[in-house]
Amino acid sequence: MKVWSKFLICICLLFMFHLPVEAHNNAIPKQVVNIKRAANIKDLVSSSTFIAYGWFDTSHQKQPLDKSVQDGQLVNFVQSFHVDKYLKGAGGKIINVLSTGIEPLPAPLNPINKVYPGPMAEGRYVCFLKPVSGTEFYTIVGGWQGVYPVYEGKTISLEEEGLPELNQLTLRQFEAKIKSY
């Protein structure tokens, strides 16, 4: 009799802790992620809930949208961003990042990538992130303006997209720069 009661208690505890997890909205939204550029660094920092250094998984989930552009079908992508360090805010070790892209993927220099960047490539980045309302996902603030690859310990401001004052900074310098706003 004791064994059955312990077993029943374990099953009840399992369901009690399992059910709230399934209550989260983890379906990939079917709306296009709109990108609004920040006017300046102060705007970029204040629009971000998190600013984090880490890396993206190359694997991703995707959800085709009911919209096409001349270059292909719009698709929402979700990638895991593994956080090594938070420069603003605090959260978990993994952030699910939502972005809208095109399939088939356009050539890297195609201007449509500025509007629909799609999933991030392998590598280390500093990302400016904000939540997507009504979901558990986050999106990059300002599109490419909110992404700074880190190469040989220094950030790279993407040409014509990133903010020049965030170029060629170590993580310590980058953190000091954003905390001054």
Automatic annotation (TrEMBL):
- Its domain of life reads Bacteria
Protein name in UniProt: Uncharacterized protein
Per UniProt, which keywords does this protein have? Signal
Kindly indicate where the leader peptide sits in this chain: 1-23
* Organism of origin: Paranoxybacillus vitaminiphilus
